[in-house]
Amino acid sequence: MVMGDTESCSSRAVDFVWSESKSRKQRVKVQVYNEILFRLKQSNEEETRQPYFEDDLWAHFYRLPSRYALDVNLERAEDVLMHKRLLHVARDPAATPAIEVRLVLMHEITISTNDKPKLLSQLTSLLSEIGLNIQEAHAFSTVDGYSLDVFVVDGWPLQETEQLRNVLAKEIPKVENHHHVVYPVGEQEQSGINHVNIPAEGIDVWEIDASLLKFEHKIVSGSYCIKVLSLVKMWLLKFLLMNI
Questions:
Q1: Superkingdom of this entry's organism (predicted)?
Q2: Class of residue 12 by CB neighbours under 10 A (exposed 0-12, middle 13-18, buried 19+)
Q3: Separation between Cα atoms, residue 128 and residue 120, nearest integer Å
């Protein structure tokens, strides 16, 4: 019974923190969406004149994690159209991976493909193997199983952008065909390795498998638990007010 009280207190605290954090992330995502929408409408791009464009753009932001909105360069709102297009192309098995290479001071490589374990490390290894130095890397996973990875690189002649695109189009499918081995739980236990599974980046909420946790001694219970919860709420509200 005591353990139950402690777990209940912990759950309420976690639920409160999670709901407040999620609410703030959603507000940021909506703000960035509105700003990008306004800028794209001002640009008068043909796509923005389609009747379904606003819903389409929101669906794009919705399927990506909240940190994608924070990562978007508002001064280059058209980048979002390119990201949206690549993710759409990646749905076609015959066209994946979808690749865009352009020169922005350095070469910027954007790749969209089916998401899978260790994809980012495989892509970074591939870029290194063909002689590129990665200066920036931004990786996002969608809620429906696709990836959007943006790399800023040097090490390739600036005037040979098309040649770089051709090399990537040839080499990246090798990553697509590389299968990552996932060991069954029984084999993990035999090897003495335990893992807490965290889902793809596109999901902002994740859970810890309680079966992998080891419970020791009780920490708090009763009225002291309620006081701790109140302090957590006060601290979180102060933090949110300072960062709105």
A1: Eukaryota
A2: middle
A3: 12
In contact, 163 and 170? CB cutoff 8 Å: no
Global pTM reads: 0.66
The vertex-139 CA angle with 182 and 110, nearest 5°, equals 115
Which residues contact residue 180 at a Cβ distance below 8 angstroms, ignoring those fewer than 6 apart?
116, 117, 118
DSSP alpha helix (H) spans, the chain: 2-43, 53-63, 66-71, 78-89, 119-129, 161-176, 185-190, 222-243
pLDDT at position 177, please? 66
Nearest to 168 by CA among 142, 130, 213: 130
* CA pair distance 81, 61, nearest whole angstrom: 11
Which tokens sit at 12? 């309420």
Across the range 85-93, mean pLDDT stands at 94
For the stretch 209-240, pLDDT in tens is 444 444 444 444 444 444 444 444 555 555 55
Closest by CA to 103, choosing from 172, 149, 148, 159, is 159
> In CATH, which superfamily holds the domain spanning 90-204?
ACT domain (3.30.70.260)
Q: Which helix (DSSP H) or strand (DSSP E) does residue 149 occupy?
A: strand 146-154
Q: Identify which of 205, 25, 223 has the alpha carbon closest to the alpha carbon of residue 231.
A: 223
